[in-house]
Amino acid sequence: QARDKGLAGHLAALRAGRVSAGAVKVAGIGAAAAVSAVLTRSGRGPSALVDGVLTTGLVAGTANLVNLLDLRPGRAGKVASLAAAASVGGPAGGLVAGPLGATLAVLPDDLGERVMLGDAGANAVGALLGLRLASIPGRGPRAALLAVVVALTLASERVSFTTVIEATPGLRELDRLGRLPS
Question: Among residues 13, 14, 15, 18, which one has the least CA distance to residue 3?
């Protein structure tokens, strides 16, 4: 339902005894992110727990952020492609090579309004970007990235990303690049 949008809406629905579609997505993506953290862990003990929390947060949070951007043709694909291209180097770069190729392949049809990434595509691409971020060495940089992801997610509850993009020269033009004329 429309009133169940955003984190606050999903929590309000749960308090009212309703399970929103968004709450189901949060649970599913969170569970998948936690599994990815377990599968990629390299140690045991308290440090492994911290790494697991960082990985889970980055995978789930980045999936959510890319999905939040999937409101205009090509927007999520462009952001995901730029982020993936920037992080394709290094030993874990292969984590984003496939999603980058797939996103670039669908981008012309997304921009042409013939297809869209949708929840499944945006969340999947975002999750793999998050897994790539989680592979960055050092807890400090990963914690900082998670803080940015959390801050953007919380900001999205109060501020429309579309409004910010439309009001910001450079972002507005990049967002419209390749799209059909309005």
Answer: 13
